[in-house]
Amino acid sequence: MTNTGKGLLYQGADWNFSIIRDCYDAIERVAHDELGLDTFPNRIEVITSEQMLDVYTANGMPISYHHWSYGKRFASHENAYRRGLMGLAYEVVINSNPCISYLMEENSATMQALVIAHAAFGHNHFFKNNRLFQEWTDPSQILNYLEFARGYISRCEEQHGQQAVERVLDAAHALQGQGVNRHSGSRRVDLRGEQERARARRMHEDESYNDLWRTLPQGGEMIAQGESEREALRHRFGLPEENLLYFLEKNAPRLAPWEREIIRIVRLIAQYFYPQPQLKLMNEGCATWVHDRIMTSLHEQGRIDDAAFMEAIHSTSNVIMQFGYEQGATSFNPYALGFAMMKDIERICTAPQAEDRHWFPDIAGNGDPYGTLRYAWAEYRDESFILQFLSPRVMRDFRMFRLLDDTRDPYLLVDAIHDEAGYRDIRRTVAATHDPSAWYAEIEIVDVDMFGDRTLRLEHRTQNGQILSENDMKLTLRGLADLWGYRVVLDEIDVPSGSVLATHESTPPQ
Q: Average pLDDT, stretch 463-488?
């Protein structure tokens, strides 16, 4: 049954496209008129569980080039799903313009409404308005670029063979975590312009690479270098360089133009997704808060009945459940902590206590929770959001405290508890776990022996003696050497002392 007036939008679990349209219209009114959300145009697609598994394998994108790792991921997810070892998400949403939201056809009518509120308005608003997404991504171009990437790689497979293309993709995928400009002043890539300039860029690069070949020693003779020449070379190559894929794309002597373009494709896609992990808690917390607020509003308006509202509450409760350490949880559920912080900000703005006025004098009792939340969603990332808004109330609710594990002592020390200093220490510690610099290995290319054997030298600057996982490091270094075409050496440096903890090297396959 459908309702076009002010009565119930639906009753029961069954849905049709008329019901979805009515739900969308009602949700849109709440999102825009009541919450003041600003969203991209929406495109909603209903797909099967099989299609949802397929979307999983391509990082949520509807278009992707072919690679064996996607098939492996699909088989793994499908096997676990069929055996009941994992469930599927109710939805997948894409940071594109228009914003694409996938709904599972197996969902009930209530879950379709909840997903529209969560994805098509919660995530959509966050994608469009968060400063980090604005600086790093252009949602209007990503789908066209993915179409270009798929077509280009398919043509390369036809011309050069699937094995040759797979070799480059394997190595590039292994290095994509070290293939982004994290500190660049120009972060947002013009993907449409990249396609239009591809031909001219490759011609220019072909000419530039000749400079590298002119330095090749004749007859194995080593050319003497002074430190001034070496420093000039390092300057010309922009060393040290943290973006390994960028350096290889521009400077690897033996790569063909099509191989450079494939490396560039992997690098640009990795760059596009770089903000996502830095905003996981805020993005999911925002979307969960939005769908909770919208479903509550629809219930208050009489647009959904008690049964539908209880189903929505039950689903939300499952999503925001925080398991304890004894239950296997080793970190905070981003849905749980993010949603709790959003609800807490709403409470502080409308019904603050004395503690809140002390900790948050700028927002306590301001009477504008929606405006405050929209500001937070726009201006912060997870780390800074926690530093600014994690309150003693939420810390107590999550029973947070901090342990000091000193290997010199036979015990663990609780060094931060629920007092003034402890709250601040706990907040800094939780924020530090969301600092992107803690996730990525600090690896840089520091030197190239262009007048000798062309050895590429890298440094991994590490803290507390934490060196790279040996097996993963060897496989990745092998891929790096394959793309570079010559010997690669990696030194692991202890930053405080400057000592070399380990040295690894790899040579390209013959």
A: 88
Q: Which of 26-35, 47-56, 93-102 has the lowest mean pLDDT?
A: 47-56
Instruction: Please say whether the beta carbons of 10 and 19 come within 8 A.
Output: yes
Query: Strand runs (DSSP E) across 4-131, as ranges?
Result: 42-47, 91-94, 99-104
Closest among 17, 15, 44 to 117, alpha carbons compared:
44
325-334 tens-digit pLDDT: 666 667 889 9
User: What are the angstrom distances between the C-alpha of 316 and each of 300, 330, 340, 393?
Assistant: 18, 21, 12, 21
d(CA 113, CA 22): 10
Judge whether residue 208 has pLDDT over 70.
no
Question: How many residues in total does the chain contain?
Answer: 510
Band of the pLDDT at 222, cuts 50, 70, 90?
very low
Q: Read off the tokens for 8.
A: 């119930």
Which pTM does this prediction carry? 0.84
- CB neighbours of 42 closer than 8 A, spacing ≥ 6? 24, 98, 99, 101, 120, 124
Torsion angle in degrees (nearest 10) through CA of 24, 26, 31, 34: 180
Burial 114-125 (b: 16+ CB within 10 A, else e): bbbbbbbbbbbb
Instruction: State CA 312 to chain mean position distance.
Output: 27
Give pLDDT tens digits for 349-402. Answer: 999 999 999 999 999 999 999 999 999 999 999 999 999 999 999 999 998 877
One DSSP character per residue, 422-472 reads: HHHHHHHHHHHTT-GGGTS-EEEEEEE-TTTT--EEEEEEESTT-PPPHHH
CB contact at 8 A, 295 and 304 = yes
Residue 12's SS3 state is coil
| CA dihedral over 22, 27, 29, 32, signed as positive or negative | negative
* C-beta neighbour count of 371 within 10 angstroms: 13
d(CA 90, CA 106): 9
Mean pLDDT of 432-436: 87
User: Structure tokens of 247?
Assistant: 């350096």
